[in-house]
Specification:
Oligomer: single chain
Low-confidence stretches: 121-179
Strand content: 5-15%
Mean pLDDT: 71
Helix content: 40-55%
Distance between the termini: 52 Å
Length: about 180
């Protein structure tokens, strides 16, 4: 499959529907790895021309104004592009991530862009760490290899280390915490 065909597939609503079945970032990445369009585009990204084309497409999609009532129609495509560009060229990924963070109504794309803009993947040296949440909730962070903390939802959770390990977050209702 050519790079253009892969990009058309990645931007399709059918592709987005398949990817949006993911329950978390780890499942999203595993599902993306299984998609032929994603693996083919990753192969094409080894050329500078394709990398530039994908970067320009990220910027173009980032300028698309979504309907305020719904998520961004290219959230999934932006996330996939961000993930692939990060694997190929970190400098280009940094610029693309800045553009993505300015895009309203994205979820998956922010999952990939936020850690890049923050400087690295989120890591903690503690095996587990509890933080108090409003309304009796607790965020429990534990080390897991393929998980990245959602900075957009957990921006008030501050980790005071300069170098972190990847973490997986669980938000537990107060009843579950008491058990």
């Amino acid at each position: 499959m050519s790079a253009n065909e892969a990009m058309i597939e990645i931007e399709s609503s059918v592709f987005a529907a398949r990817m949006n079945l993911a329950s978390d970032l780890w499942v999203f990445v595993r599902a993306a790895r299984d998609e032929r369009a994603v693996s083919d585009l990753l192969g094409h990204l080894r050329t500078r021309e394709t990398l530039e084309e994908v970067f320009q497409r990220i910027l173009e999609l980032a300028r698309t104004a979504p309907d305020v009532r719904y998520r961004h129609p290219f959230d999934t495509a932006l996330a996939i592009y961000m993930w692939l560009v990060e694997q190929t060229d970190r400098a280009v990924a940094g610029v693309a991530a800045e553009a993505i963070l300015g895009v309203p109504q994205t979820f998956w794309a922010r999952q990939f862009a936020t850690p890049i803009v923050a400087g690295s993947r989120i890591k903690t040296s503690a095996t587990t760490q509890d933080q108090n949440w409003p309304a009796g909730r607790v965020a429990k962070a534990s080390i897991a290899q393929d998980f990245v903390m959602d900075w957009t939802e957990l921006s008030h959770l501050v980790l005071e280390r300069s170098k972190f390990e990847r973490v997986r977050l669980f938000v537990l209702p107060s009843k579950a915490r008491a058990a």
